[in-house]
Design brief:
single chain; alpha+beta; Glutaredoxin; 4-stranded mixed β-sheet; 37% helix
């Protein structure tokens, strides 16, 4: 990862929307260099209380970028703005 961009995906193991968002992110990694830290909200009572059933949620540097479904074009634009690439 040359860019050092790392997204945080708050997720849970039994969440099909979480699995879908992670799969979409993996596809996008073919175009943009970034990492994804997956955090299981069920592993921490504070996170479980914060998010409840409101997952998946994708963050970058404290900014929420997506909830439930990934908006691919919006994320591509965000990545392009960070890297100087064209979306």
């Amino acid at each position: 990862m040359g860019t050092g961009i790392v997204f945080t995906l708050y997720s849970r193991g039994y969440c099909h929307l979480c699995h879908d968002m992670l799969a979409e992110l993996e596809v996008m990694r073919g175009t943009f260099a970034f990492g994804v830290e997956v955090v299981d909200v069920d592993s921490d009572p504070a996170l479980e209380a914060r998010f409840g059933e409101l997952v998946p949620v994708l963050f970058h540097q404290g900014r929420e970028l997506a909830r439930y479904r990934l908006d691919g074009p919006a994320l591509e634009a965000h990545l392009a703005s960070l890297t100087g690439a064209t979306a």
